[in-house]
Design the sequence.
């Protein structure tokens, strides 16, 4: 099984990438749903 890398949203991860999405949805507090996607620093693969 491949080694897992920690997801770090509070600081930059060298070579990694995080995408943050806000989607309007009245079912969530303040009407917004937030989604985070983290990409592996070595392969760029979505984790």
Sequence:
């Amino acid at each position: 099984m491949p080694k897992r890398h920690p997801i770090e949203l509070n600081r930059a991860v060298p070579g990694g990438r995080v995408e943050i999405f806000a989607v309007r949805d009245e079912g969530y507090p303040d009407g917004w749903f937030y989604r985070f996607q983290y990409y592996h620093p070595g392969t760029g693969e979505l984790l």
Observations:
- The mean pLDDT is 75.
- The chain has one domain: 1-47.
- The first strand starts at residue 17 and ends at 24.
